[in-house]
Amino acid sequence: MDFRGTHIISVKQFERNDVERVFEVADSMEPFAHRNQISKVLEGAILGNMFFEPSTRTRVSFGCAFNLLGGHVRETTDVETSSIVKGESLYDTARVISGYSDVIVMRHPQTGSVAEFSKASRVPVINGGDGANEHPSQALLDLYTIKKELDSNSRQIDGMSIAMVGDLKHGRTVHSLSQLLYLYDNIKFTLISPAELKMPGDIVGSLKNAGHTVTETADMESGLNDNDTIYLTRIQEERFNTKLEADIYRGRFRLNQAIYTRNCQPNTVIMHPLPRDSRVEANELDHDLNQHPNLAIFRQTDNGVLIRMALFALVLDVADKTARNSIEVEWYTEKRFN
Ligand code: NCD
């Protein structure tokens, strides 16, 4: 794909070599993210960071990624204080905000809304999550993390096995991640969820058609055996009609030290897009695993900055210019490492 000026709406836009290009550019962002150098390549550029659903890490990491390339960030975070409450259409909002910005990241509760918004935008739009549909930048950072974790054990993505656990019906991160893994060879998927919260049938069908192995089960412990990676998810309470309905499923699948040790391989990587629901009635990923070396959740969040820097650099066509005019970081930081 030619990234220049392109909207990033769905992982279905990507071929395998596009994913690899994003990873290569993400690697090149390390000196800036690790505070060795300051890049000014986007000096003067403005990101319109529009989040019409709750977000912490996606919003902040997109903003930090833009700042780390020298750009400015302008945020709209609340539907209540935006003109959407006055009945403004996505079309008009897109025309207006794209007049003020060089690139836009948008999160919105409705499936398809970011695609619709992008049609009226005069600048590239990156999907920060559209309802239960997709979350492409999360899938890229998840796969980038998987690749790094497997590399350190001399394993690779082709032929790997992954268990996805929890609310697979509403979880946009697992929708996008599985459709990105679709591009690789011979993946063994174990999809662990309550029967009512299964992965959408069209995604399962396309994975099977592409030659991947898919097993669906509601039995967590047997599903955890023999996986390179376990990817846990939160019950997506906001997608249910009522909180009571979500409560039925909350806490059904929990991973803790004892369950991990009993069922998983010693090098199984533990992932979660976060936020993990740490309330006692949920607690899908127990804090007793916090010191476990295979817990990759904070490596995922760190990698998110590199991936989001790469996406900005690619769509704004500066991927090969980031080091130009870069300067050394002068301040004290324990982040710096080589
Ligand atoms: C996820 C999301 O918003 O889809 N969070 C994130 O972006 N890292 C997952 C979730 O909210 O459960």
Task: Give an overview in words.
It is a single chain. The protein is α/β, with parallel strands linked by helices. It contains twelve helices and eleven strands. The protein has helices spanning 16-28, 30-33, 57-68, 90-100, 113-120, 136-151, 172-181, 201-209, 220-223, 243-247, 257-263, 297-315; strands at 37-38, 46-51, 72-76, 103-108, 125-130, 161-165, 188-192, 213-217, 229-232, 269-271, 327-328. The strands form three sheets. It has a five-stranded parallel β-sheet with strand order 8-7-6-9-10, with helices on one face. The chain has a four-stranded parallel β-sheet with strand order 3-2-4-5, sandwiched between helices. Strand 6 (161-165), helix 7 and strand 7 form a beta-alpha-beta unit. The longest helix is centred in the last third of the chain and has 19 residues, at 297-315. 44% of the residues are buried. It binds N-carbamoyl-L-aspartate. N-carbamoyl-L-aspartate (NCD) is lined by residues 57-58, 129, 135, 138, 172-173, 234, 236, 273-274.
